[in-house]
Amino acid sequence: MNEIVSALIEHGAEFAILDPALRAAGKAGLEIAKDIIGPQRLDEITGTFERAREKLRRRKVEPRQPPLTVLIPLLEAAQDENRDELREIWASLLAAAADPTRTSHFRREFIDIAKQLDPIDALVLKALAPLQGSYKPSRLMHIIAGLEISRDDVMVSFGRLATLRLATEFNNSGVEHNPELDTLGRLFMKAIAD
User: Fold this and answer.
1) The whole model's pTM is what?
2) For residues 105 and 190, is the Cβ–Cβ distance under 8 A?
3) Cα separation of 166 and 186, whole Å?
4) For 29-69, what is each residue's pLDDT tens digit?
């Protein structure tokens, strides 16, 4: 993957997120990358760039080049993702890395976390994020009703989110299921917020 990113960088393609005028300069690099990684992976990478650029445009942010220590592992992870819930997370992470107001708060750990999420975990995390304070009967029941998914699916996602340190531990056997975002979870959600 490093040779692919190097080819893209050499031909200016990674700057497509930063300046649409540089797209033409990036076309040669994109053709080289297509030969190396194949058209499907290249489509995923360029789609991630496009979605990230759109997020930055909506925020009215003048982006800057993400550090290569972030860009390379992020693209390596995003290139094989074709599930919409996770595509959005990768684009949001790339946008955060290119956003001068968020760059200093971006943690490379976020890339490792995103790699371990399943689409249902992303949905549960997004549903859990705005829930503050006490919920009766519980946040669990609120999320089940809101997402219309099974209790087991939500419980497994709660467990995954707790393992990743995005959410607090919860009591799997009790009636009260009110996990909430942990500190790292709040930072992760702040990074990917549109």
Assistant:
1) 0.80
2) yes
3) 7
4) 556 555 666 667 777 877 888 889 899 999 999 888 888 88
Three-state DSSP class for residue 181: strand
Q: Is the pLDDT of residue 123 over 60?
A: yes
Q: How far apart are CA 182 and CA 162, in angstroms?
A: 8
Give the pLDDT band (50/70/90) at residue 7.
very low
Decide: 80 and 41 in contact? Cβ < 8 Å. Answer: yes
Domains of the chain (ranges, CATH numbers): 2-108 (no CATH), 119-192 (1.10.10.10)
167 backbone dihedrals φ, ψ, rounded to 5°: -135, 160
Q: d(Cα 139, Cα 145) in Å, to the nearest integer?
A: 10
Q: Is the CB of residue 19 less than 8 Å from the CB of residue 53?
A: no
- Distance, in Å, from the CA atom of 175 to the CA atom of 173, rounded to the nearest integer, reads 7
